[in-house]
Design brief:
This protein has two domains: 75 residues, Ubiquitin-like (UB roll), CATH 3.10.20.30; 69 residues, Orthogonal Bundle (DNA polymerase, domain 1), CATH 1.10.150. It is 34% helix and 14% strand. The protein is built from seven helices and six strands; from the N terminus they run E-E-H-E-E-E-H-H-H-H-H-H-E. A six-stranded mixed beta sheet has the order 4-3-5-1-2-6, with helices on both faces. Helix 3 packs across helix 6. It is globular, with a radius of gyration of 16 Å.
């Protein structure tokens, strides 16, 4: 069994150690916010934090993730209050939403290291592909999130539609995930 901490919870996967972390998260742990885009590390839709670093989960196996701290979009903030999430909404930097979780994870990792990045730093740190073309608004959103992070303020924006904040904040029990039947 492969063990790691996912969103603050100890998780053990009874899966082939060569299974990409993406599939363990999506299929076994039911953390479907991490998206499958290309499976080759080109699009960034599957971006998660591994020990605080933004990595493409399709390129890391669960064996390589053994003992590490994994944060998915579901674990970034329980109520969608992370400054990047709020800034993406406020700047209308979301279109279809498919690439959004990966972009948010990459941006959050950038802001953790560089609280006030410039446009060129943002462009270099966000390798994600967005087929809807939100890039100008994306840069504005990340700059906004950086300003908010620096002054520990919040962005005034309506909550995102979908899951209520109460449901998003619900406690999730520790997982011991068996391999899926063949």
């Amino acid at each position: 069994m492969t063990s790691m901490t996912v969103n603050g919870r100890a998780v053990r996967f009874a899966m082939d150690p060569e299974t990409p972390l993406l599939w363990a998260l999506r299929d076994a742990a039911n953390l479907t916010g991490t998206k499958y885009g290309c499976g080759e590390g080109d699009c960034g839709a599957c971006m998660v934090h591994v020990d605080g670093e933004a990595l493409r989960s399709c390129l890391i196996t669960i064996a390589e993730a053994e003992g590490r701290l994994i944060t998915t979009i579901e674990g970034l903030s329980r109520d969608r209050s992370h400054p990047v999430q709020q800034a993406m909404v406020a700047e209308q930097a979301i279109q279809c939403g498919f690439c959004t979780p990966g972009i948010v994870m990459a941006a959050a990792a950038l802001l953790a290291k560089t609280p006030s990045p410039g446009e060129e730093e943002i462009k270099a740190a966000i390798p994600n592909l967005c087929r809807c073309g939100v890039y100008p608004r994306l840069v504005s959103a990340i700059e906004r999130a950086g300003r908010v992070t620096q002054r520990s303020d919040t962005i005034s924006a309506a909550p995102a539609p979908g899951i209520s904040a109460e449901d998003a904040a619900r406690e999730v029990p520790a997982l011991s995930v068996p391999d899926a039947p063949e």
